[in-house]
C-alpha cells in the first residue's frame, strides 16, 4: 500500500504479504539525503503469534521434506540472487548508505553464505560405529529444531540474514525473520526471491518491528532457537532472556577491533589495508579496524602516510562512483559519534584529521569524514567504546608484547590483525591475542562462509557461531541410537 510516494511495508506470513495489525510505523531514511523512502510497521505480538503458528504448521511437512530437495531450492535462490545482484546492491545503498562497491561486496558475501548452506546434506550427516560393544552399534542422527528466529542488524542488511536463514531452512526448520527496522527493504527482496525460488508457504516468514517483537520472540514458547546479530547491550539482553526462556541462543555482538603494525610490515600495503578496514562502509562494520597500535620505530612514517592518504578519501552519496566514505545510518548515530570525537579531544588525544568538516559540505545526509586521533590511551572513551563510524585511534607501542597486552585489555574480542613480514611475529600474535577472528596482513579478517563467524568476550554470547559447520550444529539436535539385532 502506498500513501503519496511512500511505501508502507507489510509482513510476510504464510506466503502472503499482509499489513501488520498495529498502526504504528517508523520512517526508513535514505542516509545520503535524509529523505523518507518507506515506512516500516512496528508489528504487535499478535502479528508475531500468527507467524509462529503458521511456521509451526509448515514445520510438519518441511521437516519431512528430503534434505536434498530442501537444498535444491537454495541452488535456484543463488541463481536468482546472482541475477538480481545489481538491484540488490542499489537497494543496500539506498537504505544503508554504503558505497556501491561495498554493497556489491556485501551481495557477493551473502551469496557465498547461501552457497555454503547448500552443503547441508553432507554437514547434517550423523555418525555410526558398528561394533561399539559386542553385537552393538551406536549411531547419531541430526534433526531440525522446529520454529526458529533470526534478529538482524542494520549494517549488513543482506549478508547477515543470509548467514542465518538459508542454513536454518536447509536443516528443516521453519523461520521467523525480524530484520532491522532501519534497513527493512533488502529483507523484503530476500524473501520475495526465496518465494520465486520455490520455497513453500509458511517456511520463511518476515515480521517487521523493533524491541517489542524481539522480546516477543525471546518469550515465545514455540520458538526453539534464536540467532541474533547486533550491538553488545542488546546481544547480552537477547542471550540472557532467550536462555531464561529455555531457548538455544547465539548472540553476535559489538566490537572494537585492534590492528598491530610492526616495523617489518609492508608500509604502503598496511596503510591501504587499514584505510579499507577503518573507513570502508564508513566504519559501520563489526569487523572495522578501530584502534591501530604502531611500534614507535615506524610510527611517524606510518602516521604521515596514513593521514595523507585518508585526506584524499571522497565523502558522498554511495551511488556516486567516486565515493569512498558514505553517510552514517542516522542523525542520532552521527550525534553520538560527534560526542565521542569531542570526548577524544577533551581527554587529550591528538586530533590529526577531523571528519566533522564534511558536515558543512553535505548538509542533507548524515555524513562524517575520516577522523584520526594519535596518542590515544586505553583509559579514553575512544579507545574503549565501539564507535561504529570512520574514526580511528592510534596508540604508540614499544613492541609486540605491549601491543598484545593492550589489545587483550579490551572488553571486546571480535577481530584483530597484525601487519608483519615475520613468521615469528605472526605466530606469537596468533598464540597470544584474544580475538575470535584473526587477520595476518589482510584488510578485514572476516572468514569466508565455509568457516564459522564469531568473536570472544563481550563480542559473542553463546557457544556455536554462525556459518560453516557451527551453523548446522546450532540449528539441529541429536538423537543417539544404541542398537542390537538378534
Ligand atoms: P542493534 O542492537 O541496535 O539492533 C539489532 C537488532 O536488535 C535489530 O533488529 C533491532 O530491532 C533490535 N533491537 C534494538 N534495540 C533493542 C532493544 N532495546 N531490545 C530488543 N531488541 C532491540 O544493532 P544495530 O545498530 O542494528 O547494528 C550494529 C551493531 O551490530 C554493532 O554493534 C555491530 O558491531 C553489531 N554487529 C555485530 C556483528 C558480529 O558478527 N559480531 C555483525 C554485524 C553487526
Features:
single chain, 486 residues, alpha/beta, Aldehyde Dehydrogenase, Chain A, domain 1, Aldehyde Dehydrogenase, Chain A, domain 2, 2 domains, seven-stranded mixed sheet, six-stranded mixed sheet, 17 helices, binds nicotinamide-adenine-dinucleotide, Malonate-semialdehyde dehydrogenase, NAD, MSDH_GmP_bac, Ald_DH_N, oxidoreductase
Description of the molecule:
It is a single chain. With 486 residues, the chain is α/β, with parallel strands linked by helices. The chain has two domains: 7-254 and 455-483, Aldehyde Dehydrogenase, Chain A, domain 1, CATH 3.40.605; 257-410 and 415-440, Aldehyde Dehydrogenase, Chain A, domain 2 (3-Layer(aba) Sandwich). The protein has 17 helices and 24 strands. The strands form six sheets. The chain has a seven-stranded mixed β-sheet, sandwiched between helices. A six-stranded mixed β-sheet has the order 11-10-9-12-13-23, sandwiched between helices. Strands 1-2-6-5 form a four-stranded mixed β-sheet, with helices on one face. Helix 10 packs across helix 11. The model has no long low-confidence stretch (mean pLDDT 97). NAD(+) binds at residues 154, 178, 181-182, 386. Its EC number is 1.2.1.27. This is Malonate-semialdehyde dehydrogenase.
Amino acid at each position: 500500500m502506498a500513501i503519496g510516494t511512500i511505501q508502507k511495508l507489510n509482513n510476510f506470513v504464510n506466503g502472503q504479504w499482509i499489513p501488520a495489525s498495529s498502526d504504528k510505523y517508523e520512517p526508513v531514511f535514505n542516509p545520503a539525503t535524509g529523505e523518507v523512502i518507506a515506512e516500516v510497521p512496528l508489528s504487535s505480538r499478535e502479528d508475531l503469534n500468527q507467524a509462529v503458528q503458521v511456521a509451526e504448521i509448515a514445520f510438519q511437512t518441511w521437516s519431512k521434506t528430503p534434505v536434498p530437495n530442501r537444498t535444491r531450492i537454495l541452488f535456484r535462490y543463488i541463481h536468482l540472487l546472482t541475477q538480481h545482484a545489481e538491484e540488490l546492491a542499489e537497494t543496500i545503498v539506498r537504505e544503508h548508505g554504503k558505497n556501491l562497491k561495498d554493497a556489491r561486496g556485501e551481495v557477493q558475501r551473502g551469496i557465498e553464505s547461501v552457497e555454503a548452506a547448500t552443503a547441508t546434506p553432507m554437514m547434517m550427516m550423523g555418525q555410526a560405529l558398528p561394533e561399539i560393544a559386542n553385537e552393538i552399534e551406536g549411531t547419531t542422527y541430526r534433526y531440525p529444531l522446529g520454529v526458529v528466529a533470526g534478529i538482524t542488524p542494520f549494517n549488513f542488511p543482506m549478508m547477515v540474514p543470509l548467514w542465518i536463514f538459508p542454513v536454518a531452512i536447509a536443516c528443516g526448520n521453519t523461520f521467523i525473520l525480524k530484520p532491522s527496522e532501519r534497513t527493512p527493504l533488502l529483507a523484503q527482496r530476500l524473501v520475495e526471491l526465496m518465494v520465486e525460488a520455490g520455497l513453500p508457504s509458511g517456511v520463511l516468514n518476515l515480521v517487521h518491528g523493533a524491541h517489542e517483537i524481539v522480546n516477543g520472540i525471546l518469550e515465545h514458547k514455540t520458538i526453539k532457537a534464536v540467532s541474533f546479530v547486533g550491538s553488545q547491550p542488546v546481544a547480552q539482553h537477547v542471550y540472557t532472556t532467550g536462555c531464561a526462556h529455555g531457548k538455544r541462543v547465539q548472540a553476535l555482538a559489538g566490537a572494537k577491533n585492534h590492528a598491530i603494525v610492526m616495523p617489518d610490515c609492508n608500509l604502503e600495503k598496511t596503510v591501504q589495508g587499514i584505510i579499507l578496514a577503518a573507513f570502508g562502509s564508513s566504519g559501520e562494520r563489526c569487523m572495522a579496524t578501530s584502534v591501530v597500535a604502531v611500534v614507535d620505530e615506524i610510527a611517524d612514517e606510518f602516521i604521515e602516510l596514513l593521514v595523507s592518504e585518508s585526506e584524499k578519501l571522497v565523502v558522498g552519496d554511495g551511488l556516486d562512483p567516486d565515493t569512498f566514505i558514505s553517510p552514517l545510518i542516522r542523525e542520532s548515530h552521527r550525534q553520538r559519534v560527534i560526542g565521542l570525537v569531542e570526548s577524544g579531544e577533551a581527554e587529550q588525544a591528538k586530533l590529526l584529521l577531523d571528519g566533522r568538516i564534511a558536515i558543512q559540505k553535505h548538509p542533507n545526509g548524515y555524513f562524517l569524514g575520516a577522523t584520526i586521533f594519535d596518542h590515544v590511551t586505553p583509559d579514553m572513551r575512544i579507545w574503549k567504546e565501539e564507535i561504529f563510524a570512520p574514526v580511528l585511534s592510534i596508540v604508540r607501542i614499544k613492541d609486540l608484547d605491549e601491543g598484545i597486552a593492550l589489545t587483550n585489555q579490551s572488553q571486546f574480542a571480535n577481530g584483530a590483525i597484525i601487519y608483519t613480514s615475520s613468521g615469528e611475529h605472526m605466530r606469537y600474535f596468533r598464540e597470544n591475542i584474544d580475538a575470535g577472528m584473526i587477520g595476518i596482513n589482510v584488510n578485514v579478517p572476516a572468514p569466508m562462509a565455509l568457516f564459522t563467524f564469531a568473536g570472544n568476550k563481550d563480542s559473542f554470547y553463546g557457544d556455536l557461531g554462525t556459518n560453516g559447520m557451527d551453523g548446522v550444529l546450532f540449528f539441529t539436535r541429536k538423537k543417539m541410537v544404541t542398537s542390537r539385532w538378534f
